[in-house]
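Cytochrome c oxidase copper chaperone, pasting as requested.
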Amino acid sequence: MMFASAAAASPESSSPLPIEAPKGAESAVNPEKKLKPCCACPETKKVRDACIIENGEENCRPLIEAHKECMRKMGFNI
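Structure tokens follow.
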């Protein structure tokens, strides 16, 4: 009986897998992309924020752009 239920589970499992396999690969990446913007790219965010606080936004353009680039790589549209 266990074999029958396992066999019944296998076709159900194998049917979505080929369809979801490409999506599964994306899903493995999507949890990273589904991060909240506040939690993405902490390294560039810390440096950017410290620079803005100490020097003002107009003096930190390269760091701001570096953080935006990191966010884009994480899948955010900035």
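Note for the archive: The radius of gyration is 22 Å.
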